[in-house]
Amino acid sequence: MLRLFLPLRIRLIVAMIFAGVAGFAPFAAQAADMQPYSPVEPPPVDDPVEWGSGWYLRGDIGWQNVQLPAVTGDFATIKGVDNIVSGGLGGGYQFNDWLRADLTVDRSVFRMNRALDTVWCPYAPVPLYTQDSQGQKQQIGVMANPSDTCAPQAKGTLNRTSFLVNGYLDLGHYWGFTPYVGAGLGAS
Asked: Which of 39-48, 98-107, 144-153 has the highest mean pLDDT?
């Protein structure tokens, strides 16, 4: 180990210099550090385009109370009221807040099975004969009992499928209600 023999006065001065440097060391180190900074903002990017946000599905359930004519054997028209239930599915696209279009498929099935009004139904018509000048029998008509009546059973089925293309013009949104004007084209 090497020792330097310095006079006391020089040793005190050197010690004070080292103590001063040691005492200011934390401040000196901080002064050399960079201050915290916020990162540079990246350049703005255009908003991404959303796909599928304007598509929608729809379902419809309907009920019809229709008056149907039923024609019986004696051509008497009897009207009856029956119920038809229908349903449909569709999908569409909303182009903006006021314009939309869709395609729908509707299906309705009607089955009628009921008794109609009582009508005249001859059960056993009896032929009526006459004799000609030679004595031969000739049929001239039939005889039926006018009290022979029956209540016929009317049965019928109606199956309907409709395809529609529709366009709608929404007229605003008011308290959860959207009035619209629509037009469509289809086949059934």
From this structure: 98-107
